[in-house]
């Protein structure tokens, strides 16, 4: 399997936990704050992973139920282990073929998934199929094109300074539609009304440089794929450049920010 594809698989477990899941757990409650949905919904969640948004839905929206779907058995096993709330249930399935009946839920939500779904229009059409008339459809993705995920932007700036070809490999090039205009357009093209798209920013505080650097060796996605393909000397140059340029505080911590775009709309 080519490196890029292997690293796009978003594997469950410690790798994802240390690289991205710890930030998605900060983001999910902020998304619910912004959304401020009515209580008593039957929710469907698309691409639950290890359950960051599932937990936020259960803890913050007073739902009747949350059916959480993911294509990965590993992620589903992790989510089932972490979340034992009886209102939650987990099913294997993909965004483009949701394993639920037509008009069977009040709201559909998805966190950090639509960027990696190959057929986003089909995914939105599926969300419309399963939600009841006037139901809520909502999702969020990281603002990669706007450089909103500062730890990734810093990584790629350093990589590109050392290797200009790295400029073509970043998340901004892979996911160019993750902009306010691109995501609003996606929701409108799917026929949603009352569409709003807003930024949500979270602090990403790293304990020390190792806490910043080591996850690139473990993680998934374009940055981790690039790291994995570097020879040891190039890896060391990149590590040194980052260490020299990051805003490392006296206590060793590195405080950056990560921004996502959150979208909500109403199904006809
Ligand atoms: C970055 S993780 C996000 C997980 C979780 N929602 C969160 O916020 O932490 C992406 C998830 O999307 C899932 N996924 C990948 N392709 C998918 C598809 N076609 N349909 C639905 N989910 C998909 C992966 O298995 C993974 O669990």
TrEMBL record:
<feature type="domain" description="Methyltransferase type 11">
    <location>
        <begin position="44"/>
        <end position="139"/>
    </location>
</feature>
<dbReference type="GO" id="GO:0008757">
    <property type="term" value="F:S-adenosylmethionine-dependent methyltransferase activity"/>
</dbReference>
<dbReference type="InterPro" id="IPR013216">
    <property type="entry name" value="Methyltransf_11"/>
</dbReference>
<dbReference type="Pfam" id="PF08241">
    <property type="entry name" value="Methyltransf_11"/>
</dbReference>
<keyword id="KW-0489">Methyltransferase</keyword>
<protein>
    <submittedName>
        <fullName>Methyltransferase domain-containing protein</fullName>
    </submittedName>
</protein>
<dbReference type="InterPro" id="IPR029063">
    <property type="entry name" value="SAM-dependent_MTases_sf"/>
</dbReference>
<dbReference type="GO" id="GO:0032259">
    <property type="term" value="P:methylation"/>
</dbReference>
<keyword id="KW-0808">Transferase</keyword>
């Amino acid at each position: 399997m080519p490196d890029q594809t292997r690293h796009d698989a978003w594997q469950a477990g410690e790798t994802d936990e240390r690289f991205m899941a710890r930030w998605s757990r900060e983001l999910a409650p902020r998304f619910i704050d912004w959304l401020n949905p009515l209580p008593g919904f039957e929710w469907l969640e698309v691409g639950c992973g290890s359950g960051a948004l599932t937990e936020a839905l259960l803890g913050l929206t007073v739902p009747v139920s949350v059916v959480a779907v993911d294509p990965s058995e590993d992620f589903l096993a992790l989510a089932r282990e972490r979340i034992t709330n009886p209102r939650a249930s987990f099913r294997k399935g993909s965004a483009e073929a949701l394993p639920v009946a037509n008009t069977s839920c009040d709201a559909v939500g998805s966190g950090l998934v639509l960027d990696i779904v190959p057929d986003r229009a089909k995914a939105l059409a599926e969300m419309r199929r399963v939600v009841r008339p006037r139901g809520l459809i909502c999702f969020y993705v990281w603002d990669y094109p706007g450089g909103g995920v500062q730890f990734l932007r810093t990584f790629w700036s350093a990589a590109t300074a050392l290797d200009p070809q790295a400029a073509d490999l970043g998340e901004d090039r892979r996911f160019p539609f993750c902009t306010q205009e691109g995501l609003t357009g996606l929701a409108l093209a799917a026929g949603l009304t009352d569409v709003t798209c807003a930024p949500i920013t979270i602090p990403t505080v790293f304990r020390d440089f190792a806490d910043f650097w080591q996850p690139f060796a473990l993680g998934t996605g374009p940055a981790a794929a690039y790291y994995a393909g570097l020879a040891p000397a190039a890896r060391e140059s990149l590590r040194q450049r980052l260490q020299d340029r990051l805003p490392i505080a006296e206590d060793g911590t590195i405080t950056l920010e990560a921004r996502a775009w959150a979208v909500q709309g109403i199904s006809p």
